[in-house]
Amino acid sequence: MKHGILPRQNIEQLVAKGHILGLQDDADHPPSLQPASLDLCLGDTALRLRASFLPGGGVSVESAVENIVMHRVDLKGGAVLETGCVYLIPLRESLNLPTDIVGLANPKSSTGRLDVFTRVICDGGEQFDTIPAGYKGPLYMEVAPRTFPILVRPGDRLGQMRFRHGPHNNLRTQHVSIDLKGDGTGSPIGYRAKRHSGLVDIRGLKAHQASEFWEPLTAPNGTLVLDPEEFYILASREAVEIPVGEAAEMAPIAPEIGEFRAHYAGFFDPGFGVSEAGGEGSRAVLEVRGRDVPFLLRHGQAVAKLVFEPMAERPDQLYGAQGSHYQSQGLRLSKHFTSD
């Protein structure tokens, strides 16, 4: 096997060989595989925590969490995760990784666009969202809704995991800039989330009126002031294309470029934006949060970068080939919302 991100068919092999556990016996939630990632399923219980944490070397999550658990929440039948709270949820999946394969986690696109902050941790973990090669044990997801309370149930998929064989190398990057001019027809150039707007049901696809949750934005002079601690959905000026032989992750250019954070859900599967999969002209949608002080964002300002890395082999299914809410996208809210 070549070095690189494993495609869908190789992830299937990991499942078949027992390197990814907890999927085979769950008839209600069969594995959901993307071209280069596996969707992760929530378990039955959430732990409300006083604070986020990392267990550290040699320490299990269960023992590390004992002193910061406030109460337990039963997710069976549905439960609301409140804004401003941190929850830890055991995942259905566990791992028994080979010694040359690393696991890497990200929020799913729809999760990031709801301003729900998620991170995956494991026993002995010393960093978030990175599962070391050879790891054997359970997985947990930290979930922190920032703007909207969310209704979740066991089996809901808020995050995804990809698997890398070999070292993290052969990288190339592409800067991504912001579009504050739109299509020139007066359509919104972005959206700002309304606070105290109500509950989002994670399974409620196209079940929420966008106007009840989002304020459309215009930028007549090509600038937009980001207010501290407000959440925005904006789009990239450039079309984004992820070749079939690569995957990509969105990352900050540098922390010193401004008082904001761009893009929580940072993984792009092979085939996003490519004409072969019906995605020509796709833009990257950016989840942007202002911080500390008001910040003036200008049209064309670089806000993030795409970091590309090779696939171990071509995936047998490209992103969007079976249909996707986000292929061929311009400015687009998550699939939970519909216009009035």
UniProtKB/TrEMBL annotation:
InterPro entries cross-referenced by the UniProt entry: DCD_C, DCD_N, dUTPase-like_sf, dUTPase_trimeric
Occurrences of domain 2'-deoxycytidine 5'-triphosphate deaminase C-terminal (ranges): 175-337
Keyword Hydrolase: yes
2'-deoxycytidine 5'-triphosphate deaminase N-terminal domain: residues covered: 3-166
Keyword Mitochondrion attached: no
Keyword annotations from UniProtKB, A to Z: Hydrolase, Nucleotide metabolism
Gene3D superfamilies xrefs: 2.70.40.10
Any one GO molecular function term: dCTP deaminase activity
GO BP term, example: 2'-deoxyribonucleotide metabolic process
Highest rank taxon of the organism: Bacteria
Protein name: 2'-deoxycytidine 5'-triphosphate deaminase
